[in-house]
Amino acid sequence: MLDIAEELHRWAEQGRDFAVATVVAVGGSAPRGPGAALAVDGKGTVIGSVSGGCVEGAVYELCRQALADGETVVERFGYSDEDAFAVGLTCGGVIDVMVTPVTPAAADAPWRAAFRAAVSTAARGGPVAVARVVRGPAGLLGRILTVRPEEAAGSGSEGSGGSGASYEGTLGGHAELDRTAAAEARAMLDSGRTGTVGLSQDGSHCPGGLTLLVESSVPPPRMIVFGAVDFAAALVRAGKFLGYRVTVCDARPVFATRARFPEADDIVVDWPHRYLRRTAVDGRTALCVLTHDAKFDVPLLKEALRRPVAFVGAMGSRRTHADRNRRLREAGVTERELARLRSPIGLDLGARTPEETALSIAAEIVATRRGGTGVPLTGSDVPIHRAERERGGAGALRLVR
Length: 401
Fold this sequence. Notes:
Blueprint: H1 5-13, E1 18-27, E2 37-41, E3 46-48, H2 56-69, E4 73-77, E5 94-102, H3 109-123, E6 128-135, E7 144-149, H4 150-153, E8 165-170, H5 175-190, E9 195-199, E10 210-217, E11 222-226, H6 230-241, E12 245-250, E13 266-269, H7 272-278, E14 286-289, H8 294-304, E15 311-314, H9 318-330, H10 335-338, E16 341-342, H11 354-370
Parallel strand pairs: 11-12, 11-14, 12-13, 14-15, 15-16
Antiparallel strand pairs: 1-2, 1-5, 2-3, 4-5, 6-7, 6-10, 7-8, 9-10
């Protein structure tokens, strides 16, 4: 749902009636993961997607029905060789989709307030998590809890219960359920993950109670490109395409200019290692070193390989790589730290141009982030759609019914 927050926020502000369909569970191969959403307003306007087109028509009709009867439902879509007329996924996977009507006239004011808080915060790019009941008693299905970092929530939150997160809304069960759910959602928000949590109605982790889908929306990850070289301009464009906030850093002011990098979010003129020491990075950050100059590379990589980032790559020939590794060892970098370095940076695509090189670097970043192999899918038995690793992104979900 939060992937279309900007549009949903606009619709809510305009007072439109609409229904939101969200993928709440995935089994096997499926084109979209949990949290992917499609919405339909009272006039039939559609935004978003829950699949590659296989089931969109049927989900559209479910949304129209939800607007008519005001009921939240969960529907499963799969694939059956026996039923040629069944609506399902041709890729052989199974998805569960929850459809929830959102109307200004709805009687549940806490639900409306929590929903609006979630889409408003996500639309502004702020950190927020939404916990919704996707399996449980019919009266609780679709109930929502919006969780934000306590320092960002302000005084309008309904509670925090010592969970480390303030929240709005209620799941409608035992009071402890809201506090426990808020704590679980905050933990997933901290790592930017989307996934399911099983709780009992009294807030304990006993099986057989409720299943919550927790969606997290966090500011975009950072990509820092060190070295204002020709390849950097193409990599900036690739990074922006992948959804990164991209910074270009170079110690030479004549090269690090807005005219040369109009699409970069930030341009910094500073020695790379000095900038890295003072800027904020996290477990989603990608650091791309394109300078291939020892006086910049060695102090920068020594710092980079000791930071908690997702990716550290450096450009250069294999001869440059060998010389750089020797210098890094002499500078005190350990073998364990060196093992984190992706060098020469990029996958072997036979790249020649700056754009092709940027594509090869972006492909390696994606493969590292998602656990891919980088081998061709043709002739391979590697699954196309995999459950993502626990370290980030949308987690693998259990089917909810």
